[in-house]
Specification:
The structure holds two protein chains of two kinds.
Chain A: H1 5-26, H2 42-60, H3 76-96, H4 98-112, H5 118-123, H6 126-139, H7 147-151
Helix pairs in contact in A: 1-2, 3-4, 4-6
Chain B: H1 2-12, H2 15-33, H3 39-50, H4 55-80, H5 89-100, H6 104-137, H7 142-160, H8 165-179, E1 182-183, E2 190-191, H9 205-223, H10 229-237, H11 247-269, H12 275-289, H13 292-297, H14 303-319, H15 321-327, H16 333-344, H17 353-356, H18 358-390, H19 394-413, H20 416-434, H21 440-462, H22 469-472, H23 474-498
Antiparallel strand pairs in B: 1-2
Helix pairs in contact in B: 1-18, 2-3, 2-4, 2-18, 3-4, 3-9, 3-16, 3-19, 4-5, 4-6, 4-10, 4-14, 4-16, 4-18, 5-6, 5-14, 6-11, 6-14, 6-15, 6-18, 7-8, 7-21, 7-23, 8-21, 9-19, 9-20, 10-18, 11-12, 11-14, 12-14, 16-21, 19-20
The chains are: A mainly alpha, B mainly alpha.
């Protein structure tokens, strides 16, 4: 049996399924439901076994189509930065508000992907988000809470 | 049926709905032309917007995006040999050689007319088949539905996995596991929430679609250093030449289109199959039925070879609506996304849909005709102009996709936990994509998870906990036998390849 990344993923899935199955058995059901033909834990238990079965098969059976990924050619840095920007976006959106956070999110993403046309970057962030916000808030009636715009008196 | 058609026409022909078909077709064509970004991404990005409309309008918009993407995918296939969507791979076999001979305009015209005819004919088949199948499926019981869902999930795993059946089945199980998070629908007992209140209502369907498609595809493009917009830049520079089709070519198309549309539609109806398999089968069949002289031209710019897959892939799109509208069981990842959106609207698709919500059922079918006309107008004269719009740098395209994904989730919950969860799922999905773990089976399983548990619950309660319900009815037993055959065949194939 060759150890490759697919097998490692299958092993992780096997462990995950085992944990899922264990948690499924811990689901608290009502006393009168305990011996019922079907209760809240029945389906998850079957799923746990199905996960163990398929990942177990993948681990045991030969892997004729081994996938080889050339990690040297992958752009981990930019991908990581984009993910980090998205996390910061999630952390600040409720406190700062939709407009400023989203505009900065877009501006920073353009910058870290290598863009340096400042005017275009600006136009495709602040005015673009303002227009989109108008579409959501003004036309489609989707309320967007924005403490920043409220603090400067733009939003009621 | 006449009454239904009239209701559908009245709904589909409102200004708002015509506008939505146009927007959907336009947006779909754009996304379809970008290799790497498929119709599922396009539809996923549209979902939050559709929640601002009524269900019929929302679904009309999504359907427009779907066949627009398949239509648009043919352009990059013909001009660049770089299929925008998998369903247009077979189009490049004869479309690209034709373009290389200086007949790019003609190839695009043949593809556009074939797609138009395929889509229109299959919408007619859908018109007649869907109500009949709805009536038949009223006799289906819970065990049949449960078996049918297992068959659908197994079939999509078998067809979408490129020989990686077990990986696809693992994705199916993962999708079902994600669907099981939250309150149990009957007892309200919480499961797998780990005392986190944000998970009590379960994981949002839109979140999973956005994470596994839109966001994950954007991250994959950056990670692999791909540039989907480079294809569009080249399209915008290509000289198209004449778009006129002569009499001889038209005669060939008249013969090819009807048979390919039937194949496309029937393959589209099958759960898990779809535009890709339909186009390959139609191409193969066409090669077998044409004269020996014509057979020689296949792969070198044959009119039949181009017309057949283009007709079939569009016909398959309409066909894939049949199981979704009549059984409430989507046949493909794309229709699974639409089904999820419909459930989000509070509409339960299934055999009773055309009685309870005739305006939704019929207006989707009617809007397909309008969509086909719009696509024909869009694809023929406007392709170079659309391509120019598309030639935006990747540095702008990717952040905008991320923006629509994150905003889509935020406006649905106003909760930053969902943003974190989406990022987490997207990172895992991106990693899994690198190793060819397919995402459509996960989405289909996630959408069907709740329905599957519900039907299993009813079946087990009716049979007093006995699993005999699986073979008590002939229909259930036949569906299950087909499923077992697919599983055993694919596991056997894995063994055979190695030894």
């Amino acid at each position: 049996m060759n150890i490759n990344t697919t097998k490692i993923i299958s092993l992780l899935f096997f462990i995950f399924s085992a944990f899922y199955l264990y948690t499924a058995y811990q689901i608290q059901v009502f006393a009168f439901d305990e011996n019922a033909p079907f209760n809240a834990r029945t389906f998850p238990i079957y799923l746990g076994y199905a996960g163990l079965f398929f990942s177990g098969l993948k681990l045991i059976l030969p892997d004729p189509n081994t996938i080889k990924v050339d990690h040297k050619n992958l752009e981990y840095k930019k991908t990581g930065i984009l993910i980090l920007i998205a996390i910061i976006y999630g952390a600040t959106i409720l406190k700062v508000g939709y407009f400023l956070t989203t505009s900065l999110f877009l501006f920073a993403s353009y910058y870290f992907l290598g863009e340096r046309r400042w005017i275009l970057m600006f136009l495709l962030s602040f005015p673009f988000v303002a227009a989109f916000m108008y579409l959501l808030h003004g036309i489609l009636d989707i309320y967007l809470r924005d403490p920043f715009l409220q603090s400067i008196g733009v939003m009621g | 049926m006449i009454e239904g058609i009239l209701i559908g026409l009245t709904t589909a022909l409102t200004f708002q709905n015509i506008l939505m078909v146009m927007v959907g077709c336009f947006f779909g064509t754009i996304i379809g032309m970008l290799p790497g970004l498929g119709p599922m991404t396009a539809i996923a990005l549209m979902i939050p917007i559709t929640y601002g409309f009524d269900p019929a309008t929302g679904l009309i918009l999504m359907a427009g995006v779907y066949y627009g993407a398949v239509f648009g995918g043919s352009t990059s296939s013909i001009l660049l040999n770089a299929p925008g969507v998998p369903g247009t791979v077979a189009t490049s076999f004869d479309g690209y050689p034709m373009a290389q001979q200086g007949k790019a305009g003609k190839a695009l015209a043949i593809a556009a007319w074939s797609s138009f005819a395929g889509g229109t004919l299959s919408a007619i088949y859908l018109l007649f088949m869907a109500p009949s199948l709805s009536k038949v499926s009223l006799s289906f019981r819970s065990p049949d539905y449960f078996a049918l869902m297992i068959l659908g999930l197994t079939a999509i795993a078998a067809f979408s996995s490129k020989g990686q059946f077990l990986k696809a089945m693992m994705m199916v199980v993962l999708g079902l596991m994600l669907a099981s998070v939250g309150q149990d629908s009957l007892s309200d007992i919480t499961r797998f929430t780990f005392n986190n209140m944000n998970l009590t209502d379960g994981i949002s369907f839109v979140l999973v679609v956005m994470a596994t498609f839109a966001m994950s595809e954007a991250l994959t493009i950056i990670l692999k250093r791909n540039d989907p917009t480079s294809a569009a830049k080249q399209v915008s520079l290509t000289e198209l030449g004449s778009i006129k089709i002569n009499k001889e070519e038209r005669t060939k198309m008249y013969k090819t289109i009807p048979r390919s549309s039937v194949i496309g539609f029937l393959i589209g109806v099958l759960p898990g199959a779809g535009a890709t398999i339909a186009s390959f089968l139609a191409y193969g069949m066409e090669r077998n039925v044409v004269s020996d002289d014509e057979k020689e031209k296949f792969g070198k710019g044959s009119v039949n070879g181009l017309s057949a897959p283009e007709t079939a892939n569009n016909a398959a799109c309409s066909g894939s609506f049949v199981p979704m509208l009549t059984l409430g069981i989507p046949g493909s990842g794309t229709t699974a996304v639409m089904l999820g959106a419909l459930l989000g609207f509070g509409v339960q698709p299934g055999p009773r849909l055309y009685m309870t919500n005739p305006e939704i059922f019929w207006s989707i079918i009617m809007s397909m005709y309008i969509g086909m006309v719009i696509l024909l107008i869009l694809n023929l004269p406007l392709i170079p102009y659309i391509a120019r719009i598309l030639a935006v740098p990747k540095n702008y395209l990717i952040p905008l996709i991320l923006f629509f994904s994150v905003t889509g989730i935020y406006v649905m919950s106003f909760n930053n936990f969902d943003i974190y969860l989406m990022i987490g799922i997207a990172v895992v999905a991106t990693f899994l994509r690198l190793y060819d773990f397919p995402m459509p089976p996960l989405i289909l399983a996630f959408v069907l998870g709740g329905l599957m548990e519900e039907n299993l619950r009813r079946s087990l309660l009716l049979s007093n906990g006995s699993w005999e319900f699986l073979w008590d009815r002939t229909l259930t037993a036949c569906i299950l036998a087909t499923t077992i055959l697919i599983v055993v065949w694919h596991i056997y194939k894995t063994f055979k390849k190695k030894y």
